[in-house]
Amino acid sequence: MARALLLLCAWLLGCGDDVASVAADAGTGVGDAGPLYDRWRKVELPGTVCGNGSQYKFWFNRSESSRNLLVYLEGGGACWDHATCSGRAGIVGAANTNGIPDNHIDLRSVMSPLLLRLEEETPTWDWNMVFLPYCTGDVFVGDRTTTYVDPDGVEPDLEFHHAGYANLLAVTEWMAAEFPDVPQLLVSGCSAGGIGSVATYNTIRSRLPSVGRGHVLDDSGPLFPGDNHARPLYDTIRAAWNLDTVIDAELGSDPALDTDLGAASTVLADAWPDDRFGITLFRHDGTFPRIAYSSMGELPRDRMFELWEEDLALLRAQYDTRENMAYFIPYWRSFIDAHCTTIVKWEGSEIEELGVDAESFVRELLGDAPLESRMETTPEGPDASAGL
User: Fold this and answer.
1) 8 Å CB contact between 278 and 363
2) Number of CB atoms found within 10 A of residue 64's CB
3) How far apart are CA 358 and CA 346, in angstroms?
4) pTM for this model (two decimals)
5) Coil, strand, or helix at residue 370?
6) What is the rounded CA–CA span in Å between residue 304 and residue 300?
7) Under the phi-then-psi rule, with left for phi > 0, alpha for psi from -120 to 50, and beta for the rest, what region is 96?
8) What contacts 43, CB < 8 A, 6 or more positions away?
9) From the CB of residue 184, how many other CB atoms can be counted at a distance below 10 Å?
10) What is the mean pLDDT of the chain?
11) Sign of CA dihedral 176, 104, 102, 139
């Protein structure tokens, strides 16, 4: 049902550009139809898999006028046990774990305006683009194949490939050959893709041969630092996805990361001091907290937002410690219960009292002026009475 609704939405909105279904040769930019620009082309790399072991696939769109590169990571929850990886857990689960359809790129217009070539509306309209679908349940950085057993003994055992990290290494090797010179790099995504934009950044940034300046835009996938309310989930996924191995390989044995996954944001900002790191999310995101605090069971909405506000305070304090980090936090919009500020459209992402929206924040992030953090303090709309 969710996919049908997304496809309907894509049909209503239009695709914005054309899709070419050709097999691209790694490193050449040439497919069966010859050199193509401004067309989406599918790539399937040997050895890359989805959660069920099926072939992983991704798409790229080459620009004729720009060498800048957008890497966009699809969102879609996460999973760490039989219930969440089998889909029985509902919203607390992961997308596309049974594989990626060949027409999956058709959904790009409902994922982010950043993926559309609309000059006046899109900061990345003329960039090279790589779209990474999500199908491993591990925000693109898992490194473990495991068998999950149904604790109720009803469903069969589930072999699951948290292969996000291996896939990412293969895709990044491909990108390094395809895009050898990148004046500006933007790694972004919404929800699980937002967390993924932070979690994958060092892997992508350090392996591309020539990047002038890099940027992260984490949309609604916060990694809360310190003693936050999502720590039980962090501890669970750390073990389920074998994250310590990946952290050691990418960021070294930084003691800050031994007990605090949220420290990754400042570790990255310090490792890449000339790059810029931004996060945007709604103060009343009605979706992400349900996953972040899932270990507490079904929480009343008011209580959920109390915890969320406390964790947002930790996040803001963390981002305020670095000049190359900034946040943009509007209050709420009715569209998909305020989850993701850069999905489908910019409308409704405004901080009304300041007269700026998420598109303005993205343009600032990609620009040269000092970064400025903003949060909406005046609640508006029918949800304004809850959680403050």
Assistant:
1) no
2) 10
3) 6
4) 0.91
5) coil
6) 6
7) left
8) 23, 24, 26, 57, 58, 59, 60, 174
9) 17
10) 89
11) positive
First to last CA, the chain: 33
Residues listed for the chain: 388
Residue ranges and CATH numbers for the domains of the chain are: 2-375 (3.40.50.1820)
Which residues, 6+ apart, have CB-to-CB distance to 268 below 8 Å?
A: 198, 201, 202, 216, 251, 277
Residue identified by tokens 């992508």 is: 204
The DSSP-derived string for 216-247 is EEEES-----SS-TTHHHHHHHHHHTTHHHHH
Written as six digits, the tokens of 146 are: 């495991």
Digitized pLDDT (tens) for each residue of the chain, 388 residues in all: 344 344 433 323 333 333 433 333 333 333 444 457 999 999 999 999 999 999 999 999 999 999 999 999 999 999 999 999 998 877 788 999 999 999 999 998 888 999 999 888 899 999 999 999 999 999 999 999 999 999 999 999 999 999 999 999 999 999 999 999 999 999 999 999 999 999 999 999 999 999 999 999 999 999 999 999 999 999 999 999 999 999 999 998 789 999 999 999 999 999 999 999 999 999 999 999 999 999 999 999 999 999 999 999 999 999 999 999 999 999 999 999 999 999 998 999 999 899 999 999 999 999 999 999 999 997 655 555 443 4
Quick one: tokens of 150?
A: 């149904």
Contact 359, 313 (CB under 8 A): no
Q: Is the dihedral of CA 281, 286, 287, 293 positive or negative?
A: positive
Q: What are phi and psi of 329, to 5 degrees?
A: -130, 90
Asked if 95 and 135 count as a contact pair (C-beta separation under 8 A), the reply is: yes
DSSP strand pairing (211-219 vs 58-61)? unpaired
